[in-house]
Amino acid sequence: MAQQGGSDLHLKIGRPPTMRLNGELVPMELPALRPEDLRSIGEQIIPPKQRREFDESKDADFAIGVPGVGRFRVNVYQQRGSLAYAFRAIAFQALSMEELNLPPVLKEIALRPRGLVLVTGITGSGKSTALASMIQYVNENRHANVITIEDPIEFLHRDIKCHINQREVGTDTTSFGQALRRVLRQDPDIIMIGEIRDLETLEIALKAADTGHMVFSTLHTTDATQTINRILSFYPPHEQADIRFQLSSALQAVICLRLVPRKDKVGRIPATEILVNSAAVQDNIRDATKALSIPELIREGTVQYGMQSFDQSLLNWYKQGVISYEAAVEAATSPSEFALRTQGIAGSSEGDWSAVNQGAR
């Protein structure tokens, strides 16, 4: 997997090892795995604590390092009464935003002094990789105390300008909640939470962002509108007004990712939707009497704030010859409007797409 540049490796009984290469599952030319193969692997790599966790819940997460090969995030789980594994390859060092083809505006967002920045997307869309590159950029350009809370630790950050402490759930702390309840006593300037999974994590993240800290985290949502709605859905109706006000004040940006196959060479490239919390966005989040109009606000904020929609990002990559028309349409939020845009015809939604024509990502 490491030699061929695969992102994931799947092991299960009765199938050869199968890796995900450029988004596609590819069986290796190896024999089908037997039960004793998977048990032997477990005896070698599963830490004692995760072994106990697996015995209780039938799945467990951990990370391993293989000398000379790389680091991997591992999930071991039970299916049809037998062991199965999912390995995710992790780079030893975070890649730069240029190497990841991320929009330049992310550098400005990463260096903001306070607030909440959410990186979102489906599983395997590059959230952790993008977040690591933003932390790396901060590490190279700002003096700050950074506390990360991860399950498990993926990218290893060494101190450059920042003082970075990485805490792994299960090894360095018992839970996300436990670590977060103590984190504000550790004098952080920046807090990185691996994932917002529950109401307690969200509330502490918002509190930290509201009290002058910079908070980075991820959510499994597909676009900026769904991200805002998901946060609001954590709270009952009678708390909606308060949470809308708190979120509108704390939020700095939402960065959503979709990986699209490249046409110009082997690999994938990120289509990126970026919502920056402008005054208009704040008003829209606060007003419970109106539906969220995030797509329109993104189009209106393209030039001034560097916002962009997925379809704007896709159109840019398509015009540069990086992705095919078919791949762009498949990934587009509005395929019909995207098709019109490629023909130079304005779609039904009004907005400023001039930044795309200027080559903005």
Strand content: 15-25%
- What form results from the Cα inertia axes? globular
CATH structural class of the largest domain: Alpha Beta
Major sheet, described briefly?
A: 7 strands, mixed
CATH topology of the largest domain: Rossmann fold
How many runs of DSSP E, i.e. beta strands? 13
Straight-line N-to-C gap: 30 Å
Low-pLDDT residue intervals, each spanning 5 or more residues = 357-361
Structural class: alpha/beta
Radius of gyration: 21 Å
What pattern of helices and strands is seen along the backbone? EEEHHEEEHEHEEHEHEHHEEHHHHHHH
CATH superfamily name of the largest domain? Answer: P-loop containing nucleotide triphosphate hydrolases
| Oligomeric form | single chain
Tally of structural domains: 2
**Overall CATH architecture of the largest domain:** 3-Layer(aba) Sandwich
Count of helix runs: 15
Describe the structure.
With about 350 residues, the chain is of the alpha/beta class. It has 2 domains: about 10-90, Beta-Lactamase (2-Layer Sandwich), CATH 3.30.450; about 105-355, 3-Layer(aba) Sandwich (Rossmann fold). Helix content is about 35%, strand content about 25%. The chain contains 15 helices and 13 strands. The protein has a 7-stranded mixed β-sheet, with helices on both faces. Helix 6 (about 200-210) links the parallel strand 10 (about 190-195) and strand 11 (about 215-220). Helix 6 (about 200-210) packs across helix 8 (about 240-250) and helix 13 runs antiparallel to helix 14 (about 335-340). The longest helix has 15 residues, at about 125-140.
